[in-house]
Amino acid sequence: MSDQKRFRPEERVSQGLKFEEPLIFERSRPGKCGFVLGKADWDVEPVDEVAALGDLYREEAAELPEVTEPEVVRHFTRLSQWNYSIDTGLYPLGSCTMKYNPKVNEAMARLPGFARLHPYAPDEWCQGALELLYELERLLCAVSGLPACSLQPAAGAQGELTGLMCIRAYHEARGDSERTKIIVPDSAHGTNPASAAFNGFSVVELPSGPDGTVSPEAVAAAMDETVAGLMITNPNTMGIFEKEIQEICQIVHDGGGKVYMDGANMNAILGKARPGDFGIDVMHFNVHKTFSTPHGGGGPGGGPICVGADLEPFLPVPRIEKVEGKESPRYSRVYDQHPQTLGKVKAFFGNFLVYVRAYTYLREYGSDLPKVSERAVLNANYVRARLGETYHVAYPGRCMHEVVFDDSSYKGLGVSTLDVAKRLIDYGFHPPTTYFPLNVEGALMVEPTETESLQEVKDFIAAMEAIHEEAEANPEFLHEAPKSAFRVRLDETRAARKPVLTYRQFRDS
Ligand SMILES: *Cc1c(COP(=O)(O)O)cnc(C)c1O
Question: Which of 37, 48, 374, 431 has its CA 20 to 30 A from that of 420?
Fold first, then answer.
C-alpha cells in the first residue's frame, strides 16, 4: 500500500469513503444475508427449503460474501461513482468516437425477443432478428457505397483482419501469388499493421506528407507487383480528409492491388461521401463508435465489413438471404452457396445486440444522418479555432471530426501532454487521446462528437485554457495532477507491467 496516496478525512467524505481502503471491499461478516426465505413464525406456513430446491439443495453453503442487499447496492453504486462515463460528461477521446448512447438503443436491445434469442434457434423462429440484420447490412452498404456486407467481425480490428483475408483470397484465387506486401501510412492505428502481419503480409510504412496526408506520389513509389494492397484511414487519424484519395485508389488499382479503408472515422462523412465512390474496395465500420454502443472498458463491439463485387465471393458465411414470399419475405442463413468463402471468423453474427443498437440508431436518424457528421465536424472545428489560440494545432487548416494538437506550446515549460491530460481530470473532464497518432510529437487528439452541446464544449475549452495558464505560472504543480480523483497519478509503467487486478493483491502487499 506504500505508494498509494491515502486520503485526508475531508477527501474521504467527499469521495463517499468512510473506511480504510481494504475495507471498501471487505464487507463480508459471518451470518449476514441478503434475502429471507420464509422463516415465518406466525400463521404462515414456513417454506421448506429442502423440498422447494429439490436436487439443487446443497449441503454446504457456497463460499460467497455474506452481505446484506443495501451493502451490495451501495458497494456497486459507489464504485460506479468513482468512474467517469459518457453519462456524466464529455469524453473527447479522439479516434474512439465516444458519443452519447441514446437510451432508446438500450430499450430495444433489452426486448426479450432479441435479448433472449438463442443463436441456434431455427430460421423460422427468428425471422425478426434476421430481418434486422439484413436491413442493417443494407443500411451499411448504403452508407459505404459498397454492394455487400458481413456483420461477423466482432470489432474494427477483426474487420481489418477479415477484410485483408478477403484481399489475400482474391489474389490467390487469381493465381497472383507474389503479392506479399501491404502499404500502411505512418499515421495508421496500430491495428492496421498488426492485421496485415497477422495475414502473413509484410508492412511497407508510408510517411505522411507535411500537410498530414498521404501523397499519390508516395503511393506510386511504393506500389509494385508485390503489393497486395493499401490500408488507409479516411478521414485519417489526424482528422484530415485525404483529398487525393481517388487518385491514390487509382494508382493502387492500376498496380493490381486493392484498397482497404479503416472506417473508424466514418463519423465525419456519414451521408456526405461514400468510400465505394472514391475507390475503396473493402472497409470496416466500428459500429460501437459511429453508431453508438457503450464501449468503454473494451467491449462489446461490432466491426462489419463492406466489400465491392470483386471481393464479395470471399465474405464469411453464413450470409443472410432475403427471398420474397407470397405474403411476406423470408430470411435465411445461407452457408453452402458460397464456395469461395473464408468460412466463419466469429461465432454466429458477431455481437447481435450491438447491431440492434446500431440499427436503432440508424433508423432514428433516418435521412438526417448527415447532420451527425455536420455537427461533429462543427464541434471539432470550434475546438480547433478557439484552442488554437493557446495550444498548437499540429496541422493548420480545417479539420474533420477531430483535431490534433502537439506539445510545442508547453513542452518548453517542462510540461508534458500527460500532465495536461491528467490535470483535465481535476476540471471534471475525461482526457483526450494522448500520444496518438505517433507521428505527432506529444499528440493530444480531441474528438468532441456531435452529441456535446456548445456549453459543454465551451466549458472544456475554458478548462484547457486554465490549464495552459497553470502551466505557464507553475509547471511543477501540473506534474502532480490529478489531485481530486479517487486515484492520483499512477506509475504508468508499473500499472501496465504489474497491474493489481484484485483488491486482495492490494490488501496483501
Ligand atoms: C478504434 C480504432 C481501430 C480498432 O477498432 P476496434 O473496434 O477497437 O477493434 C482501428 N483503427 C482506428 C483508426 C481506430 O480508431
Answer: 374
**Is residue 156 within 6 Å of ligand 1 at its C-beta?**
yes
Q: Cα of 189 to ligand 1 centre, how many Å?
A: 7
Question: Using a 6 Å cutoff on CB, does residue 185 contact ligand 1?
Answer: no
CA of 317 to the centre of ligand 1 (A): 23
Q: Is 195 in the pocket of ligand 1 (CB under 6 A)?
A: no
Angle at 472 between CA 492 and CA 381, to 5 degrees: 80
Domains of the chain and any CATH numbers: 9-82 (no CATH), 125-367 (3.40.640.10), 370-497 (3.90.1150.10)
- Could you report the per-residue pLDDT of 226-259, keeping only the tens digit for each? 999 999 999 999 999 999 999 999 999 999 999 9
Report how far residue 169's alpha carbon sits from residue 173's, in angstroms, rounded to the nearest whole number. 6
Quick check: CB of 264 below 6 Å from ligand 1? yes
Average predicted confidence (pLDDT) for the chain: 91
Each residue of 130-162: pLDDT tens digit?
A: 999 999 999 999 999 999 999 999 999 999 999
Question: How far is the centre of ligand 1, averaged over its atoms, from the C-alpha of 5 (Å)?
Answer: 34
Q: Which SS3 state, helix, strand or coil, does residue 368 take? A: helix
* Cα-only R_g, the chain: 26
Q: Report which protein residue has its CA nearest ligand 1's atom 11.
A: 189
What the block records as the C-alpha cell of 92 is 473527447
**Contact assessment for residue 94 and residue 384, using Cβ atoms and an 8 Å cutoff:** no
Kindly report the pTM of this predicted structure: 0.89
